[in-house]
Amino acid sequence: MNGIRIHGEVAPGFEGMRHALAACLADEPADPGAQLAVHLEGRRVADLWTEAVTGDALMGVYSSTKGATALTVALLAQEGVLDLDRRVADHWPAFAAEGKRDVTIRQVLSHQAGVPGVDGGLTPAELADDALTAGRVAAQRPYWEPGTACGYHSFTFGAILNEVVRAATGETLQRVYESRVRAPRALDVYLGLPESEGERVVTTLPWLSTPAQEAALAADWPDADSIAGVSYNLNATPPMDYVAYANSRETRANGPSSGGAVASARGLASLYSVAVFGLDGEASLLSPATLAEFTRLHTPGADLVTGVAGRFALGFEHKRSQYPFLGERAFGHGGMGGSEAFADPATGVVYAYTRRRMPFGFTAAENRCLAAAVLRCLS
Question: Are 355 and 338 in contact (CB under 8 A)?
Fold first, then answer.
């Protein structure tokens, strides 16, 4: 046991979450700097953090960013600004190059566009800027025939959608999100961090590991030029540095919409509550019809990048495949830094978790443990 101390508050009936957080982190070599926030039908019932951070600290959340991006696109689709079955090239003609003319917005949202990365990889400057990434993607030949398979688009997903949103609205996806979603509710999930909030940000820390663990991980590491390697930008020169990406001032300032958000667990929980249940008496942001469409499983087959079957709805991960004890329409998105956020309309639960220290092998096993603990509290 590492003696991690837990701070914060829980509502009656959720007292077990304090013990669960300590127990689920018991095997960590040191305090990872974790935050946990749980809502029930829009009401916060758990707000906990470990001693290595504060409850209002902000940190890089990697691909949990995609939840904010998907929510923004869902809102525009709900209003008729975007037609999900329209071709990307209708909005962004340059994307039609190299056999991508017929790729639809729906295929991008479900990671079926065939461009999970680019030949030669993306530079740090490109990764930090959606427009620069988009320029590389436009010229890229697909790695498979679009629409025939799913493969996780780690760093290209948001850049493609940003060009679509820019053409349809005249504003970047980040600005639409800021004006329509974040700022009116003061949500602590930023796609582009203002300088005024800089002091709240904690740096992402590398994982702790033994030589034996590193050797085992290296033996199972994807080849740089495999589809997985391309998606994770392992084919870049110099090699991709995931910790540096999250800590980059450019990444934080620009908020690239695939993985550059800065957030707290409180912020992520509020984001999903806003989408499904509403906060402070306001109506939910998304209608039942929009939620039904965006939470419906779109990729029943195995993912070419991760090998996981049944992973994606539209923009969001289909969380039932990851956490079988959740409802069929549970949706959200996790990040390689260990963050996780989801909403389960069937139970009314919204769950959000962040951690400062990267989990070994990019997998924070405590999320499954903690999510199950939330469901036990309900019963």
Answer: yes
- pLDDT tens, 308-358? 999 999 999 999 989 999 999 999 999 999 999 999 999 999 999 999 999
Query: How far is residue 30's CA from residue 32's CA, in Å, rounded to a whole number?
Result: 6
Is the Cβ–Cβ distance between 348 and 330 less than 8 Å?
Answer: no
Instruction: Report the C-alpha gap between 57 and 247 in whole angstroms.
Output: 14
Quote the CA–CA distance of 262 and 269 in Å, as a whole number.
14
DSSP state of 3: -
Task: Pull the structure tokens for residue 171.
Answer: 């504003």
Q: What is the pTM of this model?
A: 0.97
- Which 3 state secondary structure label does DSSP give 362? helix
Burial of 211 (C-beta count, 10 Å sphere; 0-12/13-18/19+): exposed
Of 147, 139, 89, 149, which is closest to residue 119 (Cα–Cα)?
139
Contact 237, 6 (CB under 8 A): no
Distance between CA atoms of residues 11 and 27, nearest Å = 27
Instruction: Cite the DSSP H helix spans in 128-264.
Output: 130-138, 157-169, 173-177, 211-219, 227-231, 242-247, 249-254
The first and second tokens of residue 239, run together, are 């090699």
Q: Each residue of 33-59: pLDDT tens digit? A: 999 999 999 999 999 999 999 999 999
Q: 66: closest CA among 132, 163, 154?
A: 154
